[in-house]
Amino acid sequence: MKTENILVIGGTGKTGRKIVNLLKETDHKVRIGSRSTIPAFNWHQPEDWSQALSEMDKVYITYQPDLAVPGALNSIELLVKEAKKADVKKLVLLSGKGEREAELCEQVIIHSGLDYTIIRASWFNQNFSESFLLDPILDGFVALPQAEVKIPFVDTNDIAQVAVKALLDEKHNGKIYQLTGPSALTFKQAINKIAEASNRNITFLPISVQEYGDGMRKAKLPEDFVWLVEYLFSEVLGNPKNSEVTNDVEKILKRKPISFEEYAEKTARLPVWKNDINQTL
Questions:
Q1: What is the DSSP letter of 114?
Q2: What are phi and psi for residue 70, nearest 5 degrees?
Q3: What's the Cα-to-Cα distance from 43 to each of 6, 53, 131, rounded to whole Å?
Q4: Cα 219 from chain centroid?
C-alpha cells in the first residue's frame, strides 16, 4: 500500500482522533489539523491554512461547530481553493444527514475538480457521553424537544472506519454515503437504555424547542450555539427523512453498525457516566 500524507482537520475531535489513530496503525503520515498543533489549523484564520495543507495528498474535513452555521459555506469554498493550490488530490467531508445548508457545502466539494467522498452522518451516539447531553445525564434529568422523533443514532467509531476507507480506497471516489445505526430510537428510549446500562435513575421530560432554547439562554450559553441547537432540533430532527435507517455502514465495513445498546453498555463500563449522586443502589 502506498504511504500517503493525510491532513485530518478536527483531528482531536469525536471522529477526527479516531481517524488519526486508524491511519497511524496503517503507517500513513498523518497531520492533525487543530488550533493547538504546529502548523495550526483554525477555521477563523484562513491565512494560515496553506501551511497545514502543504505536502498533503488527502484531507478529511470536519467543520466546527457545524456546516449549518453562517460562514461555513464561505470557509469550505476558501479551503477548496487552498487545497487545489497545495495540489491536494482528495477531500473527504463529514456532513450532516438532512441539513440543507450542509448540502450547499457538499456541492462545493463535489464541483471542486478533486476526488471526493461525502459522508452524511446521523446524530452521534457520543453526543450522550462527549457533548452537550452528558451533563444532564450526570444530573439525572434530561429535558429535550422532539421527544417522539425516532433517530438512527450512529457511532463515531463506525464513522471513523468508513472515513478511513474513503480516504484510502479509490472505489469510494465520487460517492455520497449516509451513515446511521441499525435502528432508530426516540430520545426517551435512548435515555432509558443509558439508565439501564449504567444502573442510574434518569428522568426524561419532553419539552418544546422554544422551551429548550429559553433554557439555554437563561444558562447564558452563546447565542450562536443556541441558534445551532434550535436549528438542529427543528429543521434536522423535524425532517421525517432523517429517521430512515440505511445500510451504508454495513455495505462499506462488511459488518453491522454498532447499535446504541452496544454503545451504552461499553460506555457504562467507563468512568464517564459514573456519578454517585443519582446512582441506584
A1: S
A2: -55, 135
A3: 18, 13, 20
A4: 25
- Per-10-residue mean pLDDT, the chain, length 281: 90 97 93 96 97 98 92 97 98 90 95 98 96 94 95 98 98 98 97 97 96 94 90 85 94 98 98 66 30
H helical segments located in 94-145 = 100-110, 134-139
Q: Output the CA–CA distances (angstroms, integers) from residue 4 to 58, 71, 183, in the order listed.
A: 8, 31, 36
Burial class of 235 by CB neighbour count within 10 A (0 to 12, 13 to 18, 19+): middle
**How far apart (Å, rounded) are the C-alpha atoms in residues 42 and 49?**
8
3-state secondary structure of 83: helix
- What domains does the chain contain, in order, with CATH numbers? 5-123+154-180+241-257 (3.40.50.720)
**Chain segment 240-272, per-residue pLDDT in tens:** 888 999 999 999 999 999 999 999 999 999 999
pLDDT digits (tens, 9 = 90+) for 144-155: 999 999 999 999
Gap between the Cα atoms of 222 and 227, Å rounded: 9
pTM, to two decimals:
0.94
pLDDT in tens, 31-65: 999 999 999 999 999 999 999 999 999 999 999 98
In one-letter notation, the amino acid at residue 21 is N
Q: What is the DSSP string of 138-188?
A: HHTEEEES-TT--B--B-HHHHHHHHHHHHH-GGGTTEEEEE--SS-B-HH
- Cell 452522518 identifies what position? 121
Cβ atoms within 10 Å, residue 202: 19
